[in-house]
Amino acid sequence: MSVSRSHRLFDLMQVLRRHRGTVPGLTLARELGVSLRTIRRDIVTLQAMGADIDGEPGVGYILQPGFLLPPLSFTEEEIQALVAGAQWVTRHTDDALAHAVQNALAKIGGVLPPDLRRGLDDNTFFVGRSEKGSSVVDLAQVRRAMREQRKISITHKDRSGAVAERTIWPIMLGFIDSQRFIAGWCELQGDFRIFRADHVMTVSFLDDHYPGNRRQLVKEWRAQEKHPCRQRDCV
């Protein structure tokens, strides 16, 4: 099977997953930039591979859950990108993320064909390890707070040395060189702010949920400024 067709089959599966309901063949054809005849032929191919796709021409198609497409669409460069990304996460973030990314690579390696599996051990790239600054902040807990949209109470020392207690709504983590940052809405300032993790003196993870949607808050922050990390916002 050609690589281009393998990619198209993978993309077709992704479109079916994204819609989660019956999708007309013409819609699939438009999204993938192919003919309706090609879509019908590819649906038959996926069904022969074991994909549980219900539907028929003129009505539409729906993918039932539970089918994983074999890793036909991984190229050598995509494998290298995964390895380089995993190295960066392992050496620049926290232990929980490092463990997670190694688990993810192991899962990918378990389903790759032998000729591609060797790429996971390729030493084409080297990502240096940065010295992480000392901090009382558990970044794994911060990520959990972001997922659950919970507030965090911190005692923070700004660049001038002033100390203040703040309640923030965490929306994003930043990793720049050896520094770690928490971006969020600061109730004290009534605005978005970026806090250096090594300037946080104490931290408490609250049960209170913050209003709105975290992703929407990120959009509002980015729309507010051309460059979200304004010098005056980094405290």
Automatic annotation (TrEMBL):
It comes from Rhizobium croatiense. Residues 139-200 form the WYL domain. PROSITE patterns: WYL (PS52050). It comes from the Bacteria. Gene3D superfamilies: Winged helix-like DNA-binding domain superfamily/Winged helix DNA-binding domain (1.10.10.10). Transmembrane segments: none annotated. Residues 8-62 form the Helix-turn-helix type domain. This is YafY family transcriptional regulator. It holds the Pfam family HTH_11.
